[in-house]
Amino acid sequence: MTEEFKIVIPARYESSRFPGKPLADIHGKPMIQRVHEAAVDSGASEVVIATDSTMIGMAAEEFGATVCMTGTDHASGTDRLCEVVNKLDWADDTVVVNLQGDEPLTPPAIVNQVAVNLINNRQAGCATLYTSLTQEEAKDPHIVKVVTDVNGMALYFSRSIIPYIRDADDQAMAELKYKRHIGLYAYRVELLKQFESMETCVLEQAEKLEQLRLMWHGIRIHTAEATSIPGRGIDTPDDLERVRAAIAPDY
Prior knowledge:
This protein is α/β, with parallel strands linked by helices. It has helices spanning 31-41, 54-62, 77-87, 108-119, 135-138, 170-175, 189-195, 202-207, 211-216, 237-246, and strands spanning 6-11, 25-26, 29-30, 46-51, 66-69, 95-98, 126-133, 145-148, 154-158, 178-188, 221-225. The strands form 3 sheets. It has a 7-stranded mixed sheet with strand order 5-4-1-6-10-7-11, with helices on both faces.
């Protein structure tokens, strides 16, 4: 089977906490360029930056990226992804990774991993990844947890601690593993076309987790432990400073 996939990088200029962050400088390169470089290094056959900003579009074209201009009214990066696959008329069986434009520390290896996992699991419509958590970390509602079945298919995602331990012996505790969901997804274009017409559900509204809409409508989500641990994303100027410190300058 050919392990070929594409990447779309949604990049929005407006942000309540950090306007213009895709253009923020990281050692002489805009953030969006750092993300694009990671995408290219993942082995994708095509990488597209999807943006509603002419400034981001012009900056991306300056460093040689392919740009798809999108609407300004998308509720999420997935909605922007749907517009791109329709505009570019990609085939239904095309695998597309949604790589957020504010994640410059995403290892290229896990971008490739999530795409290949979906390619190799035809029964899933979507694939994602997780890392391990301690029980104390799992109590944090800002950290999204996932529980899976024996085949790696997601059973549920939640901000609450899952699974909840009622009465467990030492052996059960030793086998228990809390899983932190990583917001990196691979989709088939066929599913993205369906997503546009999928109604939201009470679980998505309660947890504020978009992937629960897919599960509500019967879509199976494949999960696996990430082969590399991603660095933190950038939501605020303070996050940017931490990422700058983590990335060595290019000389």
